[in-house]
Amino acid sequence: MVMNLTKTLLKNIDNKEIISYNVRFDNGFEVEILNLGGIITKIITPDKNGNLENIVVGYKDIESYIQNPSYFGAIIGRTSGRICEGKISIDGVDYDLAKNYNPHQGHGGDKGFNSKIWDVKILEEENNVILKLYTKSLDMEENYPGNLDLCVTFKIYEDYKIEQTYEAISDKTTLVNMTNHSYFNLSGNIKRPITDEYLKVDCDYILELDETCVPTGKKISVENTPFDFTKEMLIGERIDDNNKQIQIGCGYDHAFILNDTKNQIKLNDIISGRNMIIDTDQDCVVIYSMNFPDDVELYNGNKTQRRYGICFETQAAPIGRNMCFIEDSLLNKGEKYIQKTIYKFFVN
Ligand code: G6D
């Protein structure tokens, strides 16, 4: 395996170094990850004509990633998605979490895992490079109980595959529900909207959202709805349908309950010929069609635009009304949280 690994010091903040780790194989496959939030800034793959282009949405500069209002590419935690009114109860003890997604908590609170500077260890194997990211989350950080030891592993294979493993262990029973918040766009260098791309999801139900975008606890069959991707469908086909759940999310911003199969999510861009498959051990994936873009400059010189990226946030069900689904995020004292999600890329 011929590969280049480049570490680059991007900036010093609060006496800590923000460093990018760039892995590039001789076939052109390139992945770049920051120690800040484990942010994926580049996944470069060829299109059907061999053009190497970035298929994740990203900002122009590191200052924008420090703010990262849209969580581009970041590790999300302790929890993903919203927690209804930021209220949880664990072993009979009530906790009030930050309402940074007013009136709810979102993505782990005011300072979630996306804002941490992680320690990084690098290992090289026969056909892959492993980046292991480590950090701690202290007891009552963002008002969650328990001292957490965390490790997120990116195993990057030269045959266009990224295997992510999320691990956590806590000295008290707490909540952990992590994910990655990359925005994918297979057109390459964010050329076209993701409404041009086709999606297939092995999912028969979504979680119903209330008007404030938290789960009600009910499931809705996708049959004959804009959420039915059981057969490949153009993302733009029904994204603006006159459907109550679409109107609540202003597009897709919903937890799709995944069938217990492999390779549950398939994204396909016919014009570039690029394909992506996601295989996860998680029960859900929140699919977010970038309905609320921020106004920050991207690496291609444009401002962030609506529907120019799509997120597949593999996770346990977000915690909704009456703390529904909280049991899916519980991590008992001394037990290990583990999640595996694999991204595979190929050209038709
Ligand atoms: C919006 O509702 C969406 C979230 O799902 C997304 O994660 C965030 O923007 C970046 O709040």
Describe it for me?
With 348 residues, this protein is mainly β. It has one domain: Beta-galactosidase, Chain A, domain 5 (Distorted Sandwich), CATH 2.70.98.10. The protein contains two helices and 28 strands. The structure holds alpha-D-quinovopyranose (G6D). The site of alpha-D-quinovopyranose has 6 residues, from loops.
CATH class: Mainly Beta
The radius of gyration over CA amounts to 19 Å
| Count of spatially separate domains | 1
Secondary-structure-derived class: mainly beta
How far apart, in Å, are the first and last alpha carbons?
24 Å
- Give the biggest sheet: 9 strands, antiparallel
DSSP summary: helix tally: 2
The string of secondary-structure elements, in order, is EEEEEHEEEEEEEEEEEEEEEEHEEEEEEE
Proportion of helical residues: under 10%
Fold-level CATH name: Beta-galactosidase, Chain A, domain 5
Broad shape:
globular
Number of DSSP E strands: 28
Rounded mean pLDDT score? 97
**Strand numbers in spatial order across the main sheet:** 11-12-13-14-28-24-23-18-21
In terms of topology, how is this protein built?
Blueprint: E1 3-13, E2 16-25, E3 30-34, E4 40-46, E5 52-54, H1 62-67, E6 75-76, E7 82-83, E8 87-90, E9 93-96, E10 105-106, E11 119-125, E12 128-137, E13 148-157, E14 161-170, E15 174-175, E16 179-180, E17 183-184, E18 198-201, E19 203-209, E20 215-221, E21 233-234, H2 244-249, E22 253-258, E23 265-269, E24 274-280, E25 284-288, E26 310-315, E27 330-331, E28 336-347
Antiparallel strand pairs: 1-2, 2-3, 3-4, 4-5, 6-16, 7-10, 8-9, 11-12, 12-13, 13-14, 14-28, 15-27, 17-26, 18-21, 18-23, 19-20, 19-22, 22-25, 23-24, 24-28, 25-26
This protein binds alpha-D-quinovopyranose.
Residues 70-71, 213, 253, 288, 292 line the site of alpha-D-quinovopyranose.
